[in-house]
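Retry 2 of 3 after timeout on previous attempt. Resubmitting structure tokens to design endpoint.
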């Protein structure tokens, strides 16, 4: 009895492949570990500096845009005040972009701070003994599963309190001055209110929108404040940020 070629193929099993064995991992010596940590520290400092430089870009945009808008608004009494209101929305968008960049900057900066308070401080004070979680595990976990140390709301609040609250303040004062002096000082309160009109939009709607917008800015500045310094966190605070512990 003959066996067809198809039957022969069905009964022949594929040869087993040998398991892939990677190179053996040996523990690092103290010198190798210190060298690796120094290079990691320099790399994280470089990242933090890069994102810190990017923060200045959006702030410069906001300042230049505000200056150009105010120069145009006050250059002639015929120029409308609506440009100041539009610029306020544009400045808020710049602040949002900067807050997103700040979240990345804070990620690298927190890692740098952890290495400073744990690795380098331990080298300076080798006799320190504290019952805390191993910082190497914290750093390794953050490298494997990176996460932002702050929320977008906190980042918006930080950038607002640092820079943008002064820009919004200048815009509010400038809008009030523009309404009062151009085209001339109003004789009555009704004339002053009437100048707030923007085309078909009634004055009360413009005033209400301005009050709501600036109230939101004020609430953001107050509710996003933190109990500790966000520029120089302590060792314990750095650990809490890295582990996500609200503690």
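Retry 2 succeeded. Sequence:
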């Amino acid at each position: 009895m003959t066996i067809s070629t198809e039957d022969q193929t069905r009964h022949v099993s594929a040869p087993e492949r040998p398991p892939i064995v990677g190179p053996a991992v040996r523990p690092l010596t103290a010198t190798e570990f210190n060298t690796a940590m120094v290079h990691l520290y320099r790399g994280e400092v470089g990242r933090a500096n890069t994102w810190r430089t990017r923060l200045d870009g959006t702030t410069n945009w906001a300042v230049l845009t505000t200056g150009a808008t105010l120069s145009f608004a006050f250059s002639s009494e015929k120029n409308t005040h609506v440009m100041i209101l539009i610029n306020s929305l544009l400045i808020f968008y710049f602040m949002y972009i900067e807050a997103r960049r700040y979240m990345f900057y804070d990620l690298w900066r927190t890692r740098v701070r952890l290495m400073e308070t744990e690795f380098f401080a331990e080298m300076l004070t080798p006799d320190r003994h504290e019952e805390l979680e191993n910082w190497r595990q914290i750093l390794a976990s953050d490298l494997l599963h990176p996460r932002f140390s702050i929320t977008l709301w906190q980042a918006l609040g930080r950038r607002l309190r640092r820079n943008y609250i002064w820009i919004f303040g200048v815009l509010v004062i400038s809008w009030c001055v523009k309404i009062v002096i151009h085209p001339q000082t109003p004789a009555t309160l009704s004339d002053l209110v009437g100048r707030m009109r923007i085309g078909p939009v009634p004055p009360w709607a413009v005033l209400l929108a301005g009050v709501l917008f600036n109230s939101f800015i004020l609430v953001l500045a107050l509710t996003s404040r933190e109990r500790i310094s966000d520029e120089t966190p302590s060792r314990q605070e750095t650990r809490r940020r890295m582990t996500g512990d609200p503690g």
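Attempt log closed. Residues 132 and 236 are 9 Å apart (CA to CA).
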